[in-house]
């Protein structure tokens, strides 16, 4: 048949398999012959049900045998992977050409379909050519070949063309060596693209679909075909050399023995006596090598000619080397140090003696230098260090209690015995260091022992006269004590709260009702019971007659807490108090009778129907089979009794029954084979089932016999196993593909010998296994990149840091893949990001700041290299001590510091000279001046750089002093240290809310600024920040004032009542008050106060409660921000606080309380009958006679910021008591006056109230400051004065105003508008000290009550704190 195709159809004639092995007849089913064309009747003779593909190319499986079902992968067979595709859809469409003989190929279903990634198929056409049976033509775009293919097909008689196979390429790439998917017709030039694997000096030569690695002259190709092996020319005829042949890479060179010169042909040699040319003697000639310059002596060796050669002679101090050409220096220091006593230094041709530090040279000897007598030592005498000479050095000794600092052996510093463990303090005493010594302090709850200075004895707080503060019981313990309560109370701190026993979960032990009372409780009972202590006893109403039971048949029965009216039996009904007969036969249950029920009074009777006998409530059946009263007959018939009757029954289901007679049934004829699964056989009254061979009978069923378990099978062989089937068995193999099966025996298939089954690819060797095979890598140093292919395993030969790049590293080796190489470092597998490289080199970058150390791994072609141990790049861990801004020695610690080459330490781009010797984990350098935090540390040499991001911070600024600035403002000069580096630094300075502008840094230790003016003088902390670093210490500043004086302006020195002293106004006997204008009245308060929860003191208590009263209240404690705004979260009202009170001494009472913020407040009242001098805050004061002093402290105040301050708000009220409310009134307002920053006074001239607030305060025990006193009163207030006293931030404690005085005396003043007597002669002088303890001391809650009667008026003078 002639082949007819469209003119542009291109055919390529190729053989997919050998002519003898390709046969379509082998894969067609019975009744089918191969014909890919569709007949005129539309019958498609192509069979699609193939399960194997013996004719697929190696590595491919069958996809389909007709092309019209391949759209979008919709095919009816298994996948076939193959690297050939077709792109021109016209080829598909051209398949519809004539096949001849009335048959046509199947047409393409959609002429608009195009080939894309979802239609990646290859179509091949089979041309049935009688001359070339089983030949395959494939579509291709090569016209030169297609013409030959077409001619071969058309010229063959009977040729037929049709679709043979469709192959799925599987992915959109070409086989190695080709590109231009999907045609894959363009060869890849691996030599140009650099994707070849030729190893130098081999050169790449491209071929179609691959390449060759060619070797230059002097090399031969290695077995891997990729590299070249050098040819040793000297191994053959000595390389043509007359004397010496030396092999080189790719070639060889000739040379001559000593005394001979190489000829111009580079092979022969000429000597003094003969010339050799390929071992032929020509003539005798002498050569002077020293004169001709042919000698090879190496300086300092000198040439001396000899017969037939020359000698190289060495000067003194050298010996000749083994090559005879050069000289080796003699190291004289190796023998007895060359005679030197200490240091011998070898020199070329000689040596030199020298001495160690601390010695002077004396010929070859060394003498000790006495640094102490020569005063060349560095001992710091100002730190008490004394020089002590030693051989070759000296020591700086320290006195007892002092030691040398760790990094300064020339100075002495105090030895902190408390830290180094050398103290003798016994627990629980606490070691407290001091300069040159230490002391042992006792904690709270202990006092110093009388036996020694190192121990503490327990204090029995329960014997302090206050019962330890406990309300009930006090129990002492070591270092403390505990409170307990009497029965009926629970402990609440120091107090005892009543216990509600009724809520203890046990109802107080009461059986029924529990009622709580203070310290106790009471039990009671429900109605129907009488109480018996905790228990309740029942009342028997049946005995007492207190019941309502009536009727002939009714009786009373007692119950717990009540009673019941009960009836004689169940034959009566009960309405609660009366019993009536029940007709049991009408109860719906027939009275319980099984058949017949008859009622009677209070009871009933049961009877039975015929065939039964009565038995109580039941009826017993009569057995007619036993009595013979039945009609059953026949051999197989038996009588069976029933309830009230009987039945005639047969032996089994194998008989029929007419009621009185039984007859056999043939079950095998019932249409169900008697229920037998296989065979049925009848018998009298029954039948029998049996089974076919291969089964066991199991009742009616037949169970399969497992021949594999019974060993009744013919399976044999190592890999053959028996598999049971229903009624038989099969001999099966471990897998279908790896074994052949003849029915009883499994034999391994050698896939390695089969081109179709062996999928092993590049760089592999197939190794057969039982039932399978593996692809071993070859050569052996290759590794699997997939199951069937191997690639060379990446090898790391070196890993190092790229010079001057902290986070860039270089890895060298073999078999890397450009832009497809992964590099990890260390145990955490840190990824080093690939930057660039080739097959032997890669650059990568790590994350900045990460330490680079440990095992390095390279992964290429999915193959992991062996680990390469990298000792690590330099990494800074810490630096010791922040240097001052003037610089100095610093120590930097870390790992893997460089010790060779030009090592540099650069801090903030400035070199830090390094002190020798170098260490891999520590470097000491001398840093220059600097400031701030962001000073990057960089450590490097020519090869490495640290990878961390460590920044050095210079020391924080420290203030040691500040100049005076008056309230009008002016230039402030601050002295200290670490103030930055002049104009290069930036500083800000604020004092409270006052800004100091134009800050100028004069030096490391001085700066100036312009401080603005202020209207009020008080102390604030200096807030200094230099280059982002805040000041390290707390330094307080107060504007200076021109006014001075510690006496009030009206101190009456002329009257003889008082005299002004440096301590204040000192009163004469009989007088008191701030100005000594008040007369002493013998006012003595009574201790203790009447209410321990409210601080109060009575004075001259006569029971009266009339007149004017005075109350002083500390109403609030407030934290203020730098703008004096209240911070509500850390401020507390103190109006309703509950205090704990106790007394330690006469005329003294102590109250304490803990606030919500965990701060602790304590107020101490102390009465002074006589005046007293007090020194406080570097100033002295006089407490007037008959004064009450209040010391107030607050501990552990948690400041929000160092810029905050703490304010105590004090309120002073004048009140009118009881009946005097109607008699007296106040019309004048309270006024407040200031005396610069010394004190403030509030006064109501009409009521006689005068209060003074001294502004001085003390912080942290040693720092005197000026408190800020503010008048917070409402304007025109007549009875109330509100004063705020605030201090700046402090770290340990604060004491405010030791002379808070309230003076009540109106000797010649009107005390209000009263109906009778316009004059009252009375007075009261009080002094208030608001003190501080461990952390902070401010104001708290206090209430005082004074009573004093003078002349016609009765006054209640109260000082109370809400």
Automatic annotation (TrEMBL):
Boundaries of every EGF-like domain copy: 187-229, 286-328, 414-452, 458-497, 538-580, 621-663, 664-703, 704-747, 748-791
Signal peptide: 1-25
SUPFAM superfamilies tied to this protein: E set domains, EGF/Laminin, Growth factor receptor domain
Family annotation (InterPro entries): cEGF, EGF, EGF-like_Ca-bd_dom, EGF-type_Asp/Asn_hydroxyl_site, EGF_Ca-bd_CS, Growth_fac_rcpt_cys_sf, Ig-like_fold, Ig_E-set
A Pfam family assignment: EGF_CA
Main location: secreted
TM annotation in the entry: 1324-1346
Key word Transmembrane helix present: yes
Keywords associated with the record: Disulfide bond, EGF-like domain, Extracellular matrix, Glycoprotein, Membrane, Repeat, Secreted, Signal, Transmembrane, Transmembrane helix
Superkingdom of the organism of origin: Eukaryota
A single GO molecular function term of this UniProt record: calcium ion binding
Compartments where found: Secreted, Extracellular space, Extracellular matrix
Family the entry assigns: Belongs to the fibulin family.
Full protein name: EGF-like domain-containing protein
Species name: Dictyostelium discoideum
Origin organism lineage: Eukaryota, Amoebozoa, Evosea, Eumycetozoa, Dictyostelia
């Amino acid at each position: 048949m002639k082949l007819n195709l469209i003119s542009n159809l291109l055919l390529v004639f190729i053989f997919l398999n050998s002519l003898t092995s390709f046969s379509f007849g082998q894969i067609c089913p019975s009744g089918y012959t191969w014909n890919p064309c569709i007949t005129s009747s539309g019958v498609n003779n192509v069979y699609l049900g193939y399960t194997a593909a013996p004719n697929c190319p190696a590595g491919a499986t069958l996809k389909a045998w007709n092309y019209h079902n391949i759209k979008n992968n919709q095919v009816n067979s298994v996948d076939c992977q193959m690297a050939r595709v077709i792109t021109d859809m016209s080829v598909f469409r051209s398949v519809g050409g004539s096949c001849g003989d009335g048959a046509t190929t199947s047409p393409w279903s959609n002429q608009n379909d195009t080939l894309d990634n979802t239609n990646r198929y290859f179509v091949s056409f089979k041309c049935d050519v009688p001359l070339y049976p089983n030949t395959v033509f494939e579509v291709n775009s090569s016209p030169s070949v297609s013409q030959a293919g077409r001619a071969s097909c058309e010229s063959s008689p009977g040729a037929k063309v049709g679709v043979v196979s469709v192959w799925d390429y599987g992915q959109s790439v070409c086989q190695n060596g080709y590109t231009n998917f999907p045609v894959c017709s363009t060869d890849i030039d691996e030599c140009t693209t650099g994707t070849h694997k030729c190893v130098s000096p081999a050169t790449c030569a491209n071929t179609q679909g691959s390449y060759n690695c060619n070797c230059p002259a002097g090399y031969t190709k290695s077995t891997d075909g990729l590299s070249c092996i050098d040819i040793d020319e000297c191994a053959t005829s000595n390389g043509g050399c007359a004397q010496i042949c030396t092999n080189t890479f790719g070639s060889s060179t000739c040379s001559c023995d000593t005394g001979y010169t190489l000829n111009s042909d580079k092979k022969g040699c000429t000597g003094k006596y003969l010339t050799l040319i390929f071992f032929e003697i020509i003539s005798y000639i002498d050569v002077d090598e020293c004169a001709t310059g042919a000698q090879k002596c190496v300086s300092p060796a000198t040439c001396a000619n000899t017969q037939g050669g020359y000698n190289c002679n060495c000067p003194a101090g050298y010996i000749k080397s083994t090559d005879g050409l050069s000289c080796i220096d003699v190291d004289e220091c190796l023998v007895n140090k060359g005679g030197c006593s200490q240091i011998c230094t070898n020199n070329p041709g000689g040596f030199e003696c020298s001495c160690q530090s601390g010695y002077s040279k004396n010929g070859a000897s060394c003498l000790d230098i006495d640094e102490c007598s020569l005063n060349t030592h560095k001992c710091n005498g100002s730190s008490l260090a004394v020089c002590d000479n030693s051989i070759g050095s000296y020591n700086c000794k320290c006195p007892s209690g002092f030691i040398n600092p760790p990094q300064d052996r020339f100075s002495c510093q105090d030895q902190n015995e408390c830290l180094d463990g050398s103290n003798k303090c016994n627990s629980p005493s606490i070691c407290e260091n001091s300069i040159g010594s230490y002391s042992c302090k006792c904690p709270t709850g202990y006092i110093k022992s009388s036996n020694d200075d190192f121990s503490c004895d327990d204090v029995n707080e329960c014997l302090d006269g206050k019962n330890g503060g406990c309300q009930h019981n006090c129990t002492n313990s070591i270092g403390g004590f505990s409170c307990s309560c009497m029965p009926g109370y629970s402990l609440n701190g120091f107090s005892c709260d009543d216990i509600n026993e009724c809520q203890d979960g046990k109802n107080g032990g009461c059986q029924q009702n529990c009622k709580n009372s203070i310290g106790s409780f009471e039990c009671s009972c429900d109605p129907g019971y009488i109480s018996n202590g905790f228990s309740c006893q029942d009342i028997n109403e049946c005995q007492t007659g207190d019941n309502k039971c009536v009727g002939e048949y009714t009786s009373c029965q007692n119950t717990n807490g009540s009673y019941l009216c009960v009836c004689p039996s169940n034959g009566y009904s009960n309405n609660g108090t009366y019993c009536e007969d029940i007709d049991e036969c009408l109860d719906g249950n027939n009275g319980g009778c099984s058949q017949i029920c008859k009622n009677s009074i209070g009871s009933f009777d049961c009877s039975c129907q015929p065939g039964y006998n009565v038995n109580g409530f039941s009826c017993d059946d009569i057995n007619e089979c036993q009595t013979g009263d039945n009609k059953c007959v026949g051999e197989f018939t038996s009588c069976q009794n029933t309830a009230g009757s009987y039945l005639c029954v047969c032996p089994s289901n194998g008989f029929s029954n007419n009621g009185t007679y039984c007859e056999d049934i043939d079950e095998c004829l019932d249409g169900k084979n008697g229920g037998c699964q296989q065979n049925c056989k009848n018998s009298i009254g029954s039948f029998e089932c049996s089974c076919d061979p291969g089964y066991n009978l199991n009742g009616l069923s037949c169970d399969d016999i497992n021949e594999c378990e019974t060993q009744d099978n013919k399976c044999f062989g190592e890999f053959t196993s028996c598999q049971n089937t229903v009624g038989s068995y099969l001999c099966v193999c471990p897998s279908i593909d790896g074994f052949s099966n003849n029915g009883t025996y499994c034999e391994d298939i050698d896939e390695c010998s089969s081109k179709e089954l062996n999928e092993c690819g590049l760089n592999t060797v197939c190794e057969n296994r039982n039932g399978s095979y593996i692809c071993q890598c070859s050569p052996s140093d290759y590794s699997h990149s997939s199951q069937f292919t191997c690639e060379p395993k990446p090898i790391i030969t070196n890993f190092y840091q790229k010079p001057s790049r902290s986070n860039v590293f270089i890895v060298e080796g073999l078999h890397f893949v450009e832009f497809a190489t992964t590099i990890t470092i260390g145990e955490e597998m840190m990824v080093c990001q690939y930057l660039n490289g080739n097959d032997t080199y890669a650059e990568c970058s790590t994350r900045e700041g990460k330490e680079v150390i440990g095992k390095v791994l390279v992964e290429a072609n999915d193959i992991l290299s062996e680990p390469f141990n990298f000792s690590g790049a330099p990494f800074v861990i810490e630096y010791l001590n922040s240097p001052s801004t003037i610089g100095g020695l610093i120590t930097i610690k870390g790992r893997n510091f460089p010790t060779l080459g030009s090592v540099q330490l650069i801090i903030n781009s400035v070199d830090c000279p390094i002190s020798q010797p170098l260490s891999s984990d520590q470097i000491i350098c001398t840093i220059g001046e600097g400031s701030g935090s962001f000073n990057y540390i960089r450590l490097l040499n020519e090869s490495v750089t640290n990878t961390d991001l460590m920044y050095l911070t210079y020391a924080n600024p420290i203030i040691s002093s500040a100049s005076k600035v008056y309230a009008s403002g002016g230039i402030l000069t601050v002295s200290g240290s670490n103030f930055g580096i002049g104009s290069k630094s930036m500083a800000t300075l604020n004092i409270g809310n006052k800004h100091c502008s134009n800050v100028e840094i004069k030096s490391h230790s001085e700066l100036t600024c312009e401080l603005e003016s202020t209207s009020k003088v008080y102390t604030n902390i200096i807030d200094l920040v230099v280059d982002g670093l805040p000041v390290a210490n707390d330094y307080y500043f107060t504007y200076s004032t021109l006014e001075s004086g510690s006496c009030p302006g009206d101190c009456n020195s002329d009257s003889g009542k008082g005299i002004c002293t440096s301590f204040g106004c000192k009163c004469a006997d009989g007088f008191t008050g701030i100005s000594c204008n008040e007369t002493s009245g013998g006012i003595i308060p009574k201790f203790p106060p009447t209410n321990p929860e409210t601080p109060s003191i009575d004075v001259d208590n006569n029971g009266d409660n009339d007149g004017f009263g005075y109350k002083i209240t500390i109403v609030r404690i407030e934290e203020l921000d730098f703008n004096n705004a209240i911070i509500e979260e850390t401020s507390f009202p103190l109006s309703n606080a509950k205090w704990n009170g106790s007394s330690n001494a006469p005329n003294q009472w102590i109250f304490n309380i803990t606030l919500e913020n965990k701060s602790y407040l304590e107020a101490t009242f102390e009465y002074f009958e006589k005046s007293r001098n007090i020194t406080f805050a570097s100033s002295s004061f006089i407490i007037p006679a008959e004064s009450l002093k209040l010391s107030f402290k607050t501990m552990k105040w948690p400041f929000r910021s160092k810029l905050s301050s703490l304010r105590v708000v004090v309120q002073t009220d004048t009140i009118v008591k009881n009946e005097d409310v109607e008699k007296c009134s106040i019309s004048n307002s309270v006024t407040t006056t200031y005396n610069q920053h010394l004190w403030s006074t509030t006064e109501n001239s009409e009521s006689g109230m005068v209060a003074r607030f001294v502004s001085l305060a003390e912080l942290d025990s040693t720092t005197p400051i000026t408190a800020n006193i503010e008048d917070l009163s409402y304007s025109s207030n007549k009875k109330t004065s509100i004063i705020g006293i605030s201090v700046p931030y402090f770290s340990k404690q604060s004491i405010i105003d030791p002379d808070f005085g309230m003076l009540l005396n109106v000797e010649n003043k009107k005390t209000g508008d009263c109906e009778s007597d316009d004059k009252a002669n009375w007075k009261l002088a009080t002094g208030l000290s608001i003190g501080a303890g461990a952390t902070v001391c401010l104001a708290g809650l206090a209430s005082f009550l004074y009573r004093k009667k003078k002349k016609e008026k009765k006054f209640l003078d109260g000082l109370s704190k809400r």
